[in-house]
Amino acid sequence: MIPVYCISGVAYGMVELIRRVIPRDIVGGDVQKLRKMDSIVHIFYEITGTAGAFTTGLVIIPALGNNMAFIITPACFLISALTWSFLSTLNFSRPSSQPPKESKSYLLSALHGLTLFAESILVGSRILFSSRKFIWLVPGYAIALHAHRHLENGIAPQIARRYLGDSAWSQIMVGGSNLGELLGALAVLLLTNVIHTPMPWLRLDALFLLVVWYIPFWRPPSGQVGQAWLVAATFMPISFGWAAGDVSLAAYIQASLARLESKNRNVSALGAVMAFLYSFYIVTYAILGTVLGRYLDGMYNRSGGVDGEGDIREGLVFTVGVQFTVVAGLVLVATFVPEGALAFNPRMVSGEVLEGRARGEDVEVGGRSPGGKVTVTATVTVTTARKDSDEGSLVSSEGKRMREML
Predict the structure, then answer these.
(1) Is residue 365 within a helix (H) or strand (E), and if so which, with residue range?
(2) Alpha-carbon distance 317 to 312, whole Å?
(3) Which candidate, 206, 194, 205, 243, places its Cα nearest to that of 345?
(4) Do residues 308 and 299 lie in contact, with contact meaning Cβ atoms separated by under 8 Å?
(5) Inter-residue contact 310 to 301 (CB < 8 Å)
(6) What is d(CA 237, CA 235) in angstroms, rounded to the nearest whole number?
(7) pLDDT per residue over 296-347, tens digit each?
(8) Parallel, antiparallel, or unpaired for β 394-395 and 386-387?
(9) Strands 375-382 and 394-395, bridge-based pairing
(10) Which residue ranges does the record annotate as region Disordered (predicted)?
(11) What is the pLDDT of residue 203?
């Protein structure tokens, strides 16, 4: 199964990275528009996630069993592939400065792709770790994402199997988590004009992570599905805080890096940073998930296993309570790293205005002359939009090019 999962993981990783990069190309570098688009996409994402989790846990697994329930996976991938086949490039044309690529064999194309991936990781790490403005994104984004995935894929199955005696009920807990994500994305959409930066949402996320401390000391009766719904209810605020922080932080990254010129013509600054952050999360989750999972399984077997009523509560104190407390501390501290982030709800961080178009974006403006006989179309290239931290004034450099069509 490992090769199959690796192949599907390649496709999933590309989709996840595209989902975090392409909004900037669609709506530009305005953080307000980016927050709205990211939150709307996440809402639809979680509508399907919530419905799918509840359907799987309550209908598909009870009807087909744990093994046969996987039969829907190829069908879902096929539907996704058919849907993607209808997507177009929207008349995208390669800039004249970029020569057309020569056709290569599949092996050479794959090697070239791996080279560009390694290059993007290096560029992304250089951007993140060389500036106070961006270094806080590693704990704020990647480590917080690891905690969320561990909640759904690591903690929920352990509770369902070891506490309640039915592994299928983990999908009920995941459904509650996804519903919390939906509400978190909806909150960002509704409060986009009130909360201007990711900081309040990330601090709320850090606070809600501490809810998991009840799990090691909880002794529910086994075999009662109502207990799974109770866990789902406690997962909702945790995922609410994470989703709100993730959506607003993704929009912040997209907007701030839209204003950063990449010195490397092969990779963009935004793509490089998102590739590094997502890769950092994957490596962290792969290592910690494996180590912590084996630790809990070993403790369960040493305490008696299936026949001797094995217990993992002592291990959950460290793998759940302590781990999430450390993550909460890292996320909370990260929110005070950027310049100007000490306020509870800062208007901006790092002295940068992210509302409005980023430099290099073309704005098409059309209209008629007073006589009604001439149509004028102007293309304005925005070159700079930042706030000077010392003087507090908006600085805008000259750099407009006009094109009149008679």
Answers:
(1) strand 361-368
(2) 9
(3) 194
(4) no
(5) yes
(6) 6
(7) 989 988 888 777 678 899 999 999 999 999 999 999 999 999 988 888 888 8
(8) antiparallel
(9) unpaired
(10) 387-406
(11) 96
Percent helix, strand, coil in the chain, to 5, is 65, 5, 30
Q: How far apart are CA 188 and CA 217, in angstroms?
A: 33
Q: 155 near 291, Cβ under 8 Å?
A: no
Candidates 353, 359, 354, 356; CA nearest to 388 is: 353
Q: Which two tokens stand for residue 167?
A: 């592994």
Q: Whole-prediction pTM value? A: 0.82
Residue position matching structure tokens 């069993």: 65
Distance between CA 247 and CA 181 in Å, rounded?
10
Rg (CA), the chain: 24
Report how far residue 402's alpha carbon sits from residue 325's, in angstroms, rounded to the nearest whole number: 55
Nearest CA-CA partner of 255 in 4, 8, 12, 34: 34
> In one letter, which amino acid is 112?
H
Model confidence at 406: pLDDT above 60: no
b/e per residue 101-119 (b: at least 16 CB within 10 A)? eeeeeeeeeeeeeeebeee
Two tokens, residue 370 = 């007073």
Written as six digits, the tokens of 245 are: 């922080």
- pLDDT tens, position by position, 108-139: 877 877 888 888 899 999 999 988 889 999 99
d(CA 168, CA 188): 32
Token digits of residue 208: 């809600």
**Measured between alpha carbons, how far is 254 from 37 in angstroms, rounded to an integer?**
12
**CB-based contacts of 218, cutoff 8 Å, min separation 6:** 163
Alpha helix segments (H runs only) across 130-263:
132-135, 137, 144-150, 156-158, 170-190, 199-208, 225-258
Residues 6+ apart with CB under 8 A from 44: none
Summary count for the chain: helices (H), strands (E): 15, 4
Burial (CB count within 10 angstroms: exposed 0-12, middle 13-18, buried 19+), residue 48: exposed
Tokens of 398: 């000259």
Q: Which residues contact 183 (CB under 8 A, 6 or more apart)?
A: 236, 240, 243
Q: Is 128 helix (H, G, I), strand (E, B) or coil?
A: helix
Q: Band of the pLDDT at 29, cuts 50, 70, 90?
A: confident
Query: HSE on the CB side for 294, CA within 13 Å?
Result: 5
